[in-house]
Every structure is written in structure tokens, then in C-alpha cells.
Amino acid sequence: MTDARLPGADEAAFIAAVRSGDPERFARITERHRRELQVHCYRMLANYEDAQDLTQETFLRAWNKRESFKGHATPRTWLYRIATNACLDFLEKRKDRAPLPSGLPGPGFEVLYLQPYPDRMLPEDPQESVVARETIELAFIVAVQHLPPRQRAVFVLRDVLGWPASKAAEALELTVASVTSALQRARVTMREQLPGRRLDWRSPATHELSDDERGVVRSYIDAHERNDLDGLTSLLRDDLRFVMLPERGTLVMTAKDAVDGWVSGGLFQRGRDDWRCVTTTVNRMPAAALYLRTPGDLEHRLFTMAVLHVVDGKIAELTGFDATGKPWLGLPPTL
After folding, report:
1. pTM of the entire structure?
2. 170 HSE (CA, 13 A, CB side)
3. For 147-186, how does the pLDDT look when each residue is reduced to its tens digit (9 = 90+)?
4. What is the C-alpha separation between 242 and 128, in angstroms, rounded?
5. Which of 85, 96, 108, 289 is the most exposed place for a label (fewest CB within 10 A)?
6. Which is nearest to 159 in space by CA: 137, 185, 122?
7. Domain locations in the chain as residue ranges
8. Half-sphere exposure for 318 (CA within 13 Å, toward CB)
């Protein structure tokens, strides 16, 4: 994301809106940046609802600070600066927005406030708004949460958005040396959190699901609807990582233990065995929305969402989310 990418006519229109003092005119011209700013806030916060709130806070701050815009940077850069600092202010106040120890043997932390990001709310032009698939996937979002807030901001501005060190330093009111040091530390943490993953976040990345991913999610849905426990087991890797948010307890288990655990918890038993599922995507990952019909009910009601990370035709990670009461997912509440 460089200043040169914004046409001069747009910048002139923005300056005119600032000088007009007309809040509706100002809102119309800043609104075009909503989706990309919301993705930026989501990378900082890992929570869709928080990202919505902080994007709105960004627009409010931009209006209140409109006289500070002098045209030295593009309107987009100016808005990103405001959004980043709004997120940092939020994180300073919300001490519950940090990974917690998993409580399981060995090292491990959980991001209990993590929420999925609906693909329909991503910017329409991924290349234009610098949304690479790897930087919206759940594993990346979780890894970023392990960075201290200011280090996190430096990493996102520098390695995701591609800002030069001088611009990031100005936005965060740091020295260039401080930004460089913070970025080096952040990169070390990201390599530890994402071993074996591609770490060149600014180069182009694919945005389409693979045939493998599409096939696995179809098979997962088919097995779920038929209560085919053997079929489900065959889709899972033996080193499956499973978490059901917002509950605590990330588990790494064999495929058989995972399915046995679901059954012992009541799934696929009488009263919880009438499923319908819908294929969807969130965070540019394959997902299944699971609907359950309980005895006496005439409809299947939205229950959970299962987000799948597929490796070599098997489910390596399954992240479950409570999908009830979240209309922003864009899913029908009943089938």
C-alpha cells in the first residue's frame, strides 16, 4: 500500500470534504475505506465485533480530527494511522484481550476472544486492499495475538501493509530505530508461532480454495449429516488440533479420540443427531455451518460453525465457533 496508489482526484475530493465541514459529505468519502479498515482492525484484535466497533471509532475520530489532515499523506494512510492508534487504545484498556495459558500440559496459549471473519465482508478487490489469504487465515490471526500490542502494530504496518519504517514510526510516534527493533522481535515470534508456513506476507497469494479443500468440506458435511462416525474419523489427521470457542481447552488428539469425545459429549446421540449443514467460507478457509433439529422442533437451527484447515487431503485443524446470535455471519438462522 503506497501513497501513489490513490488517484489525485480522490485526494482533492477528500480535502474538499474536510474543508466543507459537512459530516454527510465527509462520511460518504471515507465510507469507501470501511472494509479494508475493518480487516486491519480485525488483524489487530482477532474479534469481528471489536473490529466493527473500532472501525466506527476510527471514522468518529477522523471527523473530530479532520482539521489535522494537511495532505502530507494520502487519506487512506491517514485513516489507517487513526485506526491503528484506536486499536492500541482499546487494547490498553481491555486486559482480557490477550492469549491465556491453555491449562493443558506443556506450553500453549488460547485466544478465547477469536471470532471468524465472514468472507462477504472482505474488500472486493483483495489485491487493491492488500488482503492476502495467509494474513486473514485463523492461524495467522492467532499468531499475531502473541505479539505485544505496539509490536503487533509495527508488524502489521510494516510486513502486511508494506509501509516503510519512517511512515510506521510517524504513525506510532516512535523512532525508526524502535520500529526496526520491534519488527525484528515480531518476526521471531511469528516464525515460532507459524513454523513451516510461508512468511513473506507482502507477496501475492492465492485467494481460491483448492480442490482438496472443497472435497474435504463436502465429505465432512456428508459424514456429519449421515452421522457417519467412521467417515468423520477418516477425514481427521491423527495429530488433529481441535478447539471449540469460546470454551477453553485446545486439544491435540488422534482422530478416534476426537470423534469419541464428541460422542461422549452428546453429539450424534438421540436428540442431537438430526443435522443439516451448509458449505461456506470464513477467513478465506473452508467451513461448514452446522444446523441441529432437536426433538419437537420443525426446523433445523444454526448451532455451530466448523472452520477447517486442510493439509494433504485431511483436516489438520478444526476450530469450532458458537454461531448463535451472530447475524453478521450472513447465515440463515434456520433451515
Report:
1. 0.91
2. 10
3. 999 999 999 999 999 999 999 999 999 999 999 999 999 9
4. 34
5. 96
6. 185
7. 3-193, 211-329
8. 28
